[in-house]
Design brief:
InterPro entries: DHFR-like_dom_sf, RibDG_C. 19% of the residues lie in helices and 30% in strands. The chain is an alpha/beta fold. Strands 7-6-5-8-1-9-12-11 form an 8-stranded mixed β-sheet, sandwiched between helices. A two-stranded antiparallel sheet has the order 2-10.
Length: 193
C-alpha cells in the first residue's frame, strides 16, 4: 500500500476556507509564478513550488474527500482534479441524481470504508485525503501517515479548520521539508506513531 497524506492549502491561522466556505486567496500561489504546473497552462508557480508540487501530484492515485467538498465543487464535473485517477467521496447519501456511473468517483459511507476503497484503487500510489472534517477524522483514527500543508500568508480569523473538529492532541514529527515558494510555504510532516 502507498502512504496516506492529509493535504491542503491553508491560511497562516489554520483554515482551509472562510466562514462562507470560500478559499479566498488560498490558491493564489498556483497562479503567481511563471512555471506551468500542468498542461492547462492556467496554473503557473515558482520553480520551487513546481519541483515540490509536481513530484507530489505525480504520486497520487486516489483522493478522498467529503461530500461537502464534492458538492461545493459540483463533483469537478465528473473529472478528478489534478489528473488524479479516482476520487472516493465519504457520504451517507447516494451519488447525485443523474450522476454518470462511469465517472471515476466512488461514494462510500464512513472513513474506514473510504480508506479501504482508496487503498484498493491506489495500490502502491499515494492516497490523498482532503483536509477538513474527513481529514481530521482520518488523522484521529490513525489512518494518516503524513501531513502536507501549503501555508499561504493570509489570516482568516475563522472558518473551516485544516484538521476539522479534531479535539485531541496528535503529534507530528519535525518537518521533513520546509520550502518557500511565491506566496506559499510548503511544509511536510510525518505523523508520529
Amino acid at each position: 500500500m502507498g502512504k496516506v497524506v492529509l493535504y491542503s492549502s491553508v491560511s497562516a491561522d489554520g483554515f482551509v476556507a472562510d466562514e462562507n466556505d470560500q478559499p479566498g486567496p488560498l490558491f493564489d500561489w498556483l497562479t503567481s509564478g511563471t512555471v506551468p504546473l500542468d498542461d492547462s497552462g492556467a496554473l503557473k508557480v515558482s520553480q520551487t513550488s513546481y519541483d515540490y508540487t509536481r513530484a507530489y501530484w505525480d504520486q497520487i492515485g486516489v483522493t478522498i474527500a467529503g461530500r461537502h467538498v464534492f458538492d461545493l465543487t459540483d463533483g469537478w464535473d465528473g473529472k478528478p482534479p489534478g489528473g488524479i485517477d479516482h476520487v472516493v467521496v465519504v457520504t451517507h447519501r447516494p451519488a447525485p441524481e443523474g450522476w454518470d456511473p462511469a465517472a471515476p468517483f466512488h461514494f462510500v459511507d464512513g472513513i474506514e470504508a473510504a480508506m479501504a476503497k482508496a487503498q484498493e484503487l491506489a495500490g502502491e500510489r499515494v492516497v490523498e485525503v482532503a483536509a477538513g472534517d474527513v481529514g481530521g477524522q482520518m488523522l484521529a483514527a490513525g489512518l494518516v501517515d503524513e501531513v502536507r500543508m501549503d501555508v499561504v500568508p493570509v489570516v482568516f480569523g475563522s472558518g473551516k479548520r485544516f484538521f476539522g473538529s479534531v479535539q485531541a492532541q496528535h503529534l507530528l514529527e519535525d518537518p521533513d521539508e520546509v520550502l518557500q515558494g511565491d506566496r506559499v510555504l510548503h511544509l511536510r510532516y510525518r505523523v508520529r506513531r
